[in-house]
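Structure in, sequence out. Go:
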């Protein structure tokens, strides 16, 4: 089975994959018995600044080539000839399969990045994780997005003398979509089903406000409740198609 899967990957991705760097990353960051499946595929023009960390798959996941991709999928605003930076002295914890980091991204993982599975991170996006960033199942972001759990620098309140904590966990729930150009800052919490409008700055927790929110602005606030993104595969179901017909026929 692994040979068949590998041949399929070669057929569809042979010229997009840097096979030398793919082999290097897998055998550097994964146990040998997992690395032989080449679950992570790495594209050309990928720079390894630090791969001393590890990638950990949940027990029971059926690995095959390309369940994680880095710098291979292009999206609508970039080409595969983009520079991609990987600095992972920390841990990428994978709870599910099909996690795709599109071309031109920067991964800076000193802490623990958790991904649920069926995740898409758009071209030219940045993930900077000092402690912990959690991205749920079917969570995705468009291009030019930034996700940070840190300020990078220390700051002091001159009145009290208190040094402000420079990091805070980021939690992004299941079925969350983040519009292009948005920034998710330290301490942010987005419940399941939330949609972040493009060019928004999320810098606080929306846990109290609940799920299925439309969030937008700078700084972000709740624009609508009981809101959801229609997934592309649902557009072909009879129910959603009928709803769309009513809207567009008006």
């Amino acid at each position: 089975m692994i040979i068949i899967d590998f041949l399929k990957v070669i057929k569809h991705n042979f010229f997009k994959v840097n096979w030398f760097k793919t082999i290097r990353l897998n055998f550097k960051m994964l146990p040998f018995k997992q690395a032989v499946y080449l679950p992570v595929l790495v594209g050309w023009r990928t720079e390894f600044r630090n791969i001393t960390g590890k990638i950990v798959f949940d027990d029971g996941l059926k690995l095959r080539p390309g369940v994680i991709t880095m710098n291979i999928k292009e999206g609508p605003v970039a080409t595969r000839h983009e520079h991609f930076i990987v600095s992972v002295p920390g841990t990428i914890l994978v709870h599910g399969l099909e996690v795709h980091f599109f071309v031109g991204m920067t991964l800076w993982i000193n802490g623990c990045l958790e991904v649920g599975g069926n995740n898409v991170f758009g071209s030219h996006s940045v993930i900077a994780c000092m402690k912990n960033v959690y991205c749920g199942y079917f969570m995705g972001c468009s291009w030019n997005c930034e996700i940070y759990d840190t300020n990078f620098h220390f700051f002091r309140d001159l009145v009290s003398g208190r040094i402000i904590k420079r990091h805070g966990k980021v939690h992004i729930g299941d079925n969350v979509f983040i519009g292009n150009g948005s920034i998710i800052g330290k301490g942010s919490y987005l419940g399941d089903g939330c949609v972040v409008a493009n060019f928004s700055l999320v810098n606080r927790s929306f846990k109290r406000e609940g799920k299925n929110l439309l969030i937008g602005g700078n700084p972000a606030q709740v624009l609508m409740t009981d809101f959801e993104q229609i997934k592309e595969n649902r557009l072909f179901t009879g129910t959603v198609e009928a709803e769309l017909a009513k809207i567009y026929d008006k």
